Amino acid sequence: MKNFSQASSGFTLIELMVYIALLGGIVLIAGQAFSDSTKMRVRTQSMLQANQNAGNVSSILKEDITQLGAKSSQEAAAAGASMDNFSTDHIHDVFIDPDNADNAQKDSSSYRIGNNGNLDTLIYKRIRYDQDGHYVAVDSIFWYVDGSVLKRGCKTVSGAEDIDQCPSSSANVVEMAEGVQRFNITAAEPGATESTSHILPSTDTSVHKFRLVPRYGDDNLAFTKVEPPNGDLSVVLSGFASNYNFDNQEPVLDGRNSNQVFLAQATDLSGNWQERCAKITLETNTEYEISFSMPYSSDASRLFCPGRDYMGVGFRYTNDGARPNEINDFMFYPPTHAGASEGARKFRFRTMHKIENVCMSFTFASYSPVVGSGKITLSEVVLKKVESANYTFSGAEIAPIEKKNVKALRLELTMGVRGESSVLSLIIPIPSNGTKD
């Protein structure tokens, strides 16, 4: 009994050392787990903070830059006028360098990008408006990185200065964000350049004369009189076939006749429409624009009846004169009174597939009693690629004269918080940049 009591009265030294070692191991493991958990929590918080900062900055940048190039305003009506006045009086101040003596260096865009490794500078101009949308001033705004701090500055170029936000004497600079590691701005390269956008009547933009060659003798197509026959800046069409039965006082629907002419280069060379028309290929992923003017005529053409008579512009294959399935004709009608709709008619389209060996055509069909006896004048006929419609971010340098066709910027932003980074890439549309807003 005595020996048992002594043996049960406490731990031996060896047992105590084992217990202490085990407890130390548990404490060490728990401490390491707690340390790892804390590091993960801090890292996660830093990543979230970096993402939030980058998102906030990108939202502000996008809203700010989207207004780049704004150049027109709705001004209050003059005394005695019933409507507000749409003004472009300040358009010149918004352009970067529109008056450069060297035509290749003329810059009618509203932005300039300064490249400096991973930290670019963006400078742009725009109109500042009041709460009613009226002109107040033209501002020059710039974003840049100083050290690792992203800053935004504003200076009044012309008009009424905002002393607090956008003074005219010196720029007001505001710190927008810290921890900026990358701030790159890339302009979208236009899908076509000024020198390659024109297709018809010539790829040479200085050529404005064109010719219209009649097609007749097949598919119920009647001869069309063209003056002058060899082409000029304007061409007059007449002698249209009539599809109206005067005896029965109704349009002729069976066996109807029409007229068709094809666009060609102005020349005195003889030949039928298949030989003389300007043959082209329409590419995929390209936006095209047909444009022409149609001056008013006081003759019977003004009696054109929409929904009954037909005037259309489109394309036909040169081998058989058939219309490509992908492109319907674009319908139009003449102005009904002087001053009405005499500006350029414009039609835009794309094709899903490449269409080869086609010519541009005008087709007419007259069903009203006397409209066919009138004359139609076509001027300034042009087919071109739309420079600003398609773009790529190739990173290639854009010539000053082409910058006016840039319609988007790409922002690449990297921001860091306590060693963690957030990378953001954003495309920002700038529809008002250039001369065609």
What does this 3D model show about the protein?
- By secondary structure, this protein is α+β, with helices and mostly antiparallel strands.
- It has 2 domains: 16-75 and 85-191 and 391-437, no CATH class; 198-385, Galactose-binding domain-like (Jelly Rolls, Sandwich).
- 15% of the residues lie in helices and 35% in strands.
- The protein contains 4 helices and 27 strands.
- Strands 11, 12, 17, 18, 20, 21 and 23 form a 7-stranded mixed sheet that branches. Strands 10, 13, 14, 19, 22 and 24 form a 6-stranded antiparallel sheet that branches. Strands 3-4-5-6-7 form a 5-stranded antiparallel sheet.
- Strand 4 and strand 5 (135-146) form a beta hairpin.
- The termini are far apart.
- The model has no long low-confidence stretch (mean pLDDT 86).
Features:
437 residues, alpha+beta, Jelly Rolls, 4 helices
